[in-house]
Amino acid sequence: MTLSDIIQLLAVLAAVGASIVALVVSGKDRANAQKIAEADRAAAAEVAMQDRCEALRQAHLMFELQTLTRLLENLNRGGSTVPEEVKRLGAEALTLIGALGPERLPTLWEERVGDDGRLRTAYEDPEMPQFKKDALESQLAVNAVLREIREALQR
């Protein structure tokens, strides 16, 4: 074996070694890039979830503000002497109080609506007219939706 053969062999071995090192570095780089991408996706998903929760909170606050404004207008119209108008305003007020829930209007809620147990007891009363039972069932459904919304906002 001549000196030029040895130099060529060493050059080939160096090239093979460099290729192996390049493959190892490339593999580690790809693994790191995947970890970074996964972390970025997780962070983006977390930000998106926070954005959705904030949007839900803001939408719920706007709903409550509009409903409270309607209720305030309704209650400020009180004192009508026309029986049909009194019934309509009372029904609307009860509906609005029921939609807002006990967290916003604890006193009005307790006086006019009550908790689910009280609503269920009234619903089970055989003397209760069907149209009132329908309203009670609707109020129980509204209460369930309000609980779900508040639970979602607390997450």
Task: Explain the layout of strands and helices.
Blueprint: H1 3-76, H2 83-100, H3 106-113, H4 116-124, H5 130-154
Helix pairs in contact: 1-2, 2-5, 4-5
Model regions low in confidence, pLDDT < 50 over at least 5 residues: none
In N-to-C order, the SSE pattern is HHHHH
Structural class: mainly alpha
User: How is the main sheet built?
Assistant: none
Summarize the structure in short:
The protein is an all-alpha fold. It is built from five helices and no strands. The longest helix is centred in the first third of the chain and has 74 residues, at 3-76.
Overview of this protein structure:
With 155 residues, this protein is mainly α. The protein is built from 5 helices and no strands. α1 packs antiparallel against α2 and α2 (83-100) packs parallel to α5. The termini are far apart. The model has no long low-confidence stretch (mean pLDDT 90).
Main features:
155 residues; mainly alpha; 86% helix; 5 helices; single chain
